[in-house]
Amino acid sequence: MEKNKTGKYFKYAVGEIILVVIGILIALQINNWNTGKIQQRESIKLSERLYEENESNIVELKKIIKRQKRIISANLSILQLMGKDYTSKDPKVLDSLMNLNIITETFHSNSSVLTEAITTGKLGFFRNVELKSSLYDIPPLLKKVKTDENYVMGISNETGSFISENYSYRQMDYKFSKYKDQLGPSAFKDIDGRKILSNFKLENEYDNLFFIRNIKLKSYNDLLAKYKEISVLLEKDIKKR
Fold first, then answer.
1. Which of 5, 154, 163, 165 has the most CB atoms in a 10 Å sphere around its CB?
2. Residue 7's pLDDT band (cuts 50, 70, 90)
3. Nearest to residue 109, comparing CAs of 68, 66, 138?
4. Whose CA is closest to 162, among 96, 192, 216, 206?
């Protein structure tokens, strides 16, 4: 009799344990399903936010590249004007080219969403390996752009210091600045700024600038290509859902 009771209790206990285990497994499955749904919703929102941020960067970077090309063209034009026979050169043309060459472009990326996605680990939501890899490529590309910009800035400042000793910035600003009416012409009207075209040092300065500006332009184009690639991948990812 005691053995039968013990057997029944044992079977009952085993049954209870099995029910508890099944309950736990069902609860875990429901929890995993809910977690998956939450991650999917967050992933969709993240894709949309990244796409919007990426597109804004493309628009801004295209503007920067367009202006950078104009600066490089002006840089090359000055090199083509260099020589001893500076008196035959048009001073207005030179002022215009010099005005363009004092501009230094800098790209300010909008990367708040991407930074958030990387630091929080939310990029792990994406199953597309190519998309994740491309997004991780952005920070080092931005770092390269910033390095090249700083390099150009440094050389431009050195060139600017030399030019300020041999050329009238005020006369140039009088023709092209939005404050020209307030500034008025240079008080040193007898100084011929074209003489700077016969200066060997200036030729070297602009030669250096021409090369490093092209290096910076390549960095911009590399970054733009990556942004465009990411936009295509994000668009596909959003449509797939």
1. 163
2. low
3. 138
4. 206
Longest CA pairwise span in the chain (Å): 127
Q: Buried (b) or exposed (e) across 108-132, using 16+ Cβ within 10 A? A: ebebebbeebeeeebbebbeeeebb
Please state the domain count of the chain: 1
Nearest to 209 by CA among 71, 97, 67: 71
- Count the residues in the chain: 241
Domain of 113, in residue numbers: 2-240
- 96, exposed or middle or buried, with CB in 10 Å at 0-12, 13-18, 19+? middle
The number of beta carbons lying within 10 Å of the beta carbon of residue 215 is: 13
In the structure encoding, which two tokens stand for residue 178, read together?
């939005």
Residue 16 has pLDDT above 70, yes or no: no
